[in-house]
Amino acid sequence: MRRRRALLLCLLCCLAAPARAHKPSDSYLTLTVAGRHIEGQWDIALRDLDFAIGLDGDGDGRLTWDEIRSRHAAIAAYALGRLELASGGAACPLRPGAQLLARHTDGAYSVLRFQADCPAPIAALDIDYRLFADLDPQHRGLLQLRHTDQSATAILGPEQPRQRLVVAAPDRLGQFGAYLRHGVWHIWIGLDHILFLLSLLLPAVLPAAAARGADSLRAAFVDVLKVVSAFTLAHSVTLSLASLGLVALPSRWVESAIAASVALAALNNLLPLFRRRRPAVAFAFGLIHGFGFAAVLADLGLPPGALAASLLGFNLGVEIGQLAIVAAFLPLTFLLRRSWFYRQLLGGGSALIAMLAGVWLLERAFDLKLAPF
Q: How far from 342 is each of 2, 45, 50, 168, CA to CA, in Å?
């Protein structure tokens, strides 16, 4: 009994954590190299800048253009003070330029443009990135380095703040690895994708239909495999089509549909909506989730010279991250499947997920802000 309670506590923590966490921050840094000159553009989330240096002058919880514009100098000083570029061992001093606003899939961003000149033509660029390193250990800087028709990418953050990128001949294997890591990272922080999948998997271990041999880890694994495979196949198709520019849907429609899919998957555990058709439902909604993954990949950008490899790396990373979640989830829930605690978890956890998804649906469909996560 004590062991089961410990396992239940771990599972509850896994389900409760997303409800109080917000999406870890990303920034998007583009460097265009020509000879010894660098043109830079840095997209940084306003919510992160507000937390770091304070942009909301009147404290009313809303940012206006006047409030942001009055802090342009502070934004440039804060950001550029946490980025260093060097070539051949010599620093390339940064000079701030114009500042604009842009909207990404997760909100409004400040767009900081800047320039730099190195002492000699750039063959390799050293990047030292420390943005929000003291505030958010999960922050990531998504870098794209451009030179003529070549493009290289990297992911920077507190755990990997320094990288060297070769300008003339980008490391294709390194780019593949960077997109693979980014795919893993974004499935782990994609709360809506995770909760959709977990909602569909929660009934997989229930000991119903034991007479047909369903009450076994093997049967639960087969059931989970069907759901995960259907979800994977579907989102891989739309991720590829959307990333290649062959199909496009409005972001608000996609994000609203994803929230609705999470709510329906959770409600299915409370009401018999599609109990025996969960793989089919996973496939149908997986098509929508693929557009959500594509929006993340669009923010990062696909390098023209390694488009297929980068797309494959990102998709493979999503699958690895997804399988890691399933590998932790299935044995734990199987051990708890016959307990009263698990049945309470199935009902209470599903109700909590459905309510959270309902809030997301209202926020995304009507452009509201109802919850801090």
A: 14, 39, 41, 57
